[in-house]
Amino acid sequence: MAKKETIEKSGSGKTAGRKETIGKTGMAVKEGIVSSLKGINEIEAEIVSLVRSTVSNTLKATGTVASEGVNVTKDVVKGAIAATEEVGTGLILSTKSVAKGIVMGVSDVGGDVLSISSQTVKGAVKGAAEIGADVGLVARRAVDGVIEATKEIGGNVEDVAKVAVGGAVEAAGSIGNTAVRAVKDMLVGVVEGVKEVLSSAVPKQRPSAGSAQKSRTTASKVLGGKSEIMRRGKKGEE
Q1: Is the pTM of this model over 0.85?
Q2: What is the number of alpha carbons within 13 Å of residue 186 lying toward its C-beta?
Q3: Structural contact between residues 104 and 153, judged by C-beta atoms closer than 8 angstroms
């Protein structure tokens, strides 16, 4: 009896040891991920700060925010894309921060946030296509960036989201149908009103004669079935 108890205790000790090891492994992974994410957040904050100050300082120097805002935006987006090409990765991660920095920089000098939001997303989508990046993901990150910036500066988020999504779809349209579908799938439901923007931006396909006839046939069957049920019900009541 004593021997059996010793074996049981020994076995339970091994199980506890394994659980403890797994627990430590999980904790190590968790801590590693947390530190990595903190590092990413710090990098993103630095990009936002860099882009914001660069854009606002450039526009202050030119003294013509209205006319130069779009040009500065194009240059900043090109610079971000060139940087990711040089490093070899990072466009999807950096797009949100770049877009956010542009909008905040333009806002700092009293520029038109709506038009800049649209131009920023257009530039990001076209740039992504040029270097073979995921157009849908880049569009989503860019839209997220301009929306986040708009929230922080106290702007109209819904209006900005609409023009940003419209810009993304327009830019995708110049690339091809596959790009349009990718962008549409990623952006539907970003904020209220976006679905209306997408449906108006992308032409709806007309149903073919065959599908229309099939729909009419199905409808006739359903209506005929309902009529038969009503007739049977009346007979039952008699």
Answers
A1: no
A2: 24
A3: yes
